[in-house]
Design goal:
elongated; single chain; Immunoglobulin-like; alpha+beta; 34% strand; four-stranded antiparallel beta sheet; 2 domains
């Protein structure tokens, strides 16, 4: 993750199934375990003690990013169209708000750029492996020659029967060696991430 941030995950929690003793419990018990109510179910987790040390720069960055993610989610679910997208992508026990917060917090990743079919000719293709915890909405590809000059730039397109995003070259690039290809993926909240490779 950019800036050393970690993805939002729920760990060290288990669900108490059909337990009449713990049903409806919420809060801490004997500073040992914590009960959480979610979607009518009781979850048991490890008690978290209050942190008294001054927050580190990483902790402050996480707090700032999380606060921004909450602000985004509150606005996002006010849009019927956006809310419907998040509702469609939620898992059991999640709300559209939960999914939107995680989507805003977690940036997409560009995990690979495949140039097997790119030889510097018009019509050659480049395939980009871009992923997100919810949805990648666009992938921009730019090609610079070995001298750093921009050869071309444009949007890649999704493929119906194949994974990855496909970019089709529109300009000739005869001097391939040293050329740099950059792919930038963007998700629904506007987070982006890039990968650059150099052709040998």
């Amino acid at each position: 993750m950019p800036g050393g941030l970690e993805r939002i995950e729920i760990k060290n929690k288990m669900k108490a199934k059909d337990n009449v003793v713990t049903k409806g419990f919420s809060g801490a018990l004997d500073r040992t375990i914590t009960f959480i109510q979610k979607a009518g179910k009781t979850y048991v987790g490890k008690f978290r003690r209050k942190v008294t040390d001054a927050p580190t720069e990483k902790m402050l960055a996480v707090r700032t990013r999380f606060s921004a993610s909450v602000i985004y989610a509150k606005k996002a679910i006010k849009s019927l169209a956006t809310r419907a997208l998040y509702l469609a992508g939620r898992l059991p026990g999640q709300t559209a708000f939960n999914v939107a917060v995680a989507d805003a917090y977690n940036a997409p990743t560009v995990d690979g750029i495949q140039t097997t079919n790119y030889h510097g000719a018009i019509g050659n293709t480049i395939t980009v492996d871009a992923n997100d915890d919810f949805k990648v909405v666009s992938v921009m590809v730019s090609i610079h020659d070995g001298a750093g000059n921009l050869v071309e730039q444009g949007n890649a397109a999704t493929q119906e029967d194949e994974p990855g995003w496909l970019y089709t070259a529109t300009q000739a690039n005869p001097a391939l060696t040293g050329s740099k290809i950059t792919a930038t993926a963007t998700d629904l909240p506007g987070n982006s991430a890039s990968l650059v490779i150099t052709l040998q």
